[in-house]
């Protein structure tokens, strides 16, 4: 047991730069209290594989990026199974070059192979996480929702910290930092990536709210993040190009290996599963009835023309009074 724990401790340090080993190390961690010889052999196998790949240039790359920049929050989850009684989530927060301005935010886009290149490219790994989920899930959809919310929390934290260094006045004010946390950073938007169509449709309002109360709240919180501007684009990607998939399962995944050997991330279409992206215009005020609308209804409401009527008059002492009617409301301006 002592030898197993010693090897496991060394592997945990190694996963700081070898993200492809995280899933195997997490599986071994769950056996610490009931370790057997088979688990020790499995740990030795992970060490052997890591040594064989020395010299292949695997690690973290920090190539020069050209502004404007964005954060890509890639999240995935694997449900419980026969060998594991809990869900495992994987999250990557990547700093990427922003080439998403070519897409209109008022429509859903099914991307061509050439357009998929805008979603990837050179990137810096700023946050990586692969571990047993801290919250109980009752379905694959629920597990994916929990991973999305965890990814949003991590992405928001990274965004605020970078904005404090790069985009805030010196010194940054407390009010400014709170506003960035609640409304997002305009100069450093967050794009969320998922391979779960069920969660994608829940977060965009295409599906009715889930029956489970906990999942319902998490879905609403993610929808609020989209309305407020904390999440700019929501991207549905094929599982084959889901980079975070390697953080949840013991596997050798091409997207993860490409990220660790070239410092680039790549998303691509499959024959029966195209990349789909969707966004919402930023809403200054979010009301309860907005959560009952899908994306198309929200965009339709926000695009309605604003009718303004102005009446100008003079009071008894000669001051000008202006009465403004806006959507049936009125205000006096002096």
TrEMBL record:
Protein name: CPK34 protein
Name of the coding gene: CPK34
Keywords recorded for this protein, A-Z: Signal
Organism: Symbiodinium necroappetens
Cleavable signal peptide: 1-23
